[in-house]
């Protein structure tokens, strides 16, 4: 499984952060007038090192919730804190892997990977070494001097993942990061992510609409609908998980329930999903 | 309270109007407290009065051989020139731009001509036109056409070339003839970008027209400005400039509104 | 043959064709502006007596007597006339360009720092863009006289307006995701401006600068048309009064060459800063930065 060399002794390598959301609500002003509750009284406690997937249909508020946890937008009501420290703005403690391409095109790959460390004032040699090590762990050791325009979408995602991990975040947030990738690349990126996670164990909140992806990655799946949490399931499938794991009876059960939540109940009933 | 991403901003921002008012107040303040001599910057009140006084009939301006019709008559000449030149340039520029986007051979001939001509600072050609066409309207209009065609051509060509090829491919699978494709697919699709170019050309055209009138023209607001300058009459000169600026702004606003209406189907960027 | 070479060769061919067409026109158009001065002077005239006649514009000095004071027209005189007037115009141009670009750029950055200042400035800035700046030349002449300062300030004004609106636009077009990404990686406000916003706006800024270069040539020559004592524009307008089209033509050619040089200088200088840019535009990464100005966009 872990194909990339020995673990690094980097400060904050193994995290113990608990993410707590208490009665979080977020309003939006609709353009025609009137308030919309994008996130409605959400309470959630994610213990340290747990990998949680948040799934839901389009427009259910999951991306908004993630942005609230990241601190990119302020929340209207409730509290969000990490280890007791309230979230008031973005911070490297809560790293975010974005859905869109966020890798800076005007910096070489190695400079991108070292960017978070540079912002924190780490010396040049140290940060380049650290960045290099993380790039190697995601399999990009030989392209560190390349420009982002020369890389494929999957490789750019690896750079983003390496960059965020290099910052040693306590909490790792991911906003449908692999949505734009093809099937095989997606599975490869899953491995990359899980490798890094198993080594440094940040607390993870991963937003997706892909039920299979959630089941391959998560310890726990939380379902959101119309701004509210409607289900919370522990996934106890043994790791390492493969595509075959999805065929296990336990997995199929979870999937059936989740698909129903997402509104695909009819398809399950008429047998279009194979058992 | 935040708006969800993707909400278009309101057309006229209240804060923007406030900013404009601040500029006018600033102007008034400078002239009121005599920070600058009134010879250099007359007070806004006086200037607006001058515009109103001389708008439709002005014996004062008639004394300078600037015609009986006051500022309005001069502005009429200027606006007419800009309108004529821009219309001709749009028709020719869009036609050329759209065709050269699709026909490589045509493009490799016309592109270098237009691009080379476009890097000539247009101001250099003004005296030539004055010599060749004399102190007549044709000189102004010719100069403007030269300037406008370059801009509209470049924008039209780029718009047609940047149009997602999927649209044309789809129309071909429906059996559309080339004529249909250009008129009903490419032209409407390229219209937003073309309109952007036309607005840019329009903005520059006012200054160019005023300037070529300054150099020598039978009529026009530029002549008024020049006459007032040589007569050291700052308030009337500023009045003329401001009148032109107001006309330019209103025309731009009106044109933008028309364009926005015509292309109201498009998805606007988040501002 | 690389694409660049093909483009250069085609441009050269076009120039040659235009030159030939000019010659043809000089034969077909036999009118004269003033007895002895053809309306479309052919290349044979330009090559022989025009250059010499430029010696008229040398006011004397450096061992060459001024034509007005009875001296003969010499090549030295003509060369000196061209050189000194070119110097005057170029000095005004580059000074105005540097001043205006700096002021416009910094003002643009300052205004886009805060959302409120951006909104406050939006309407005045939009108006400034449609303002017929060329009509202000007489005003500048009233204010500063027919001096160096007047020309420089006018050039600087035009350039700063272009750079200002261009910078504010460019900053507004920076994709949110880059700024958010930097924030989650721990960047401070200043770090975001320095390492994210500045590089991200450079492609769009480049178009603004190219526009400004073009505008600077136009405005410097225009300001000289209206009564400067020296400079290439002044020679053109003096020649125009007398109908000396051939002299106008030669000086215009010099202007074209100088303008082309300015563009080329800028291209070279900006090459290193654009190393990271994707080559072809479809499917590129900074999509919003490359979006062309649309009719509905704010400015």
Question: What's the quick description here?
Answer:
Chain A has 275 residues and is an alpha/beta fold. Chain A contains 9 helices and 10 strands.
Question: Can you walk through the features of this model?
Answer:
The complex is a heterotrimer of chains A (275), B (271) and C (299). Chain A is an alpha/beta fold and 275 residues long. Helix content of chain A is 33%, strand content 23%. Chain A has 9 helices and 10 strands. A 6-stranded mixed β-sheet of chain A has the order 6-7-8-3-9-10, sandwiched between helices. In chain A, helix 4 packs across helix 5 and helix 5 (153-166) packs parallel to helix 6. The two termini of chain A are 29 Å apart. With 271 residues, chain B is mainly α. Chain B has a domain at 77-262: MetI-like fold (Orthogonal Bundle). Helices cover 75% and strands 0% of the residues of chain B. Chain B has 11 helices and no strands. Chain B has helices spanning 14-32, 44-53, 59-63, 70-102, 104-119, 125-133, 137-162, 165-173, 178-215, 221-230, 234-262. The longest helix of chain B has 38 residues, at 178-215. In chain C, strands 1-2 form a two-stranded antiparallel ribbon. In chain C, helix 3 packs across helix 6 (148-173) and helix 4 (115-130) crosses helix 6. The interface between B and C is large, with 75 and 65 residues.
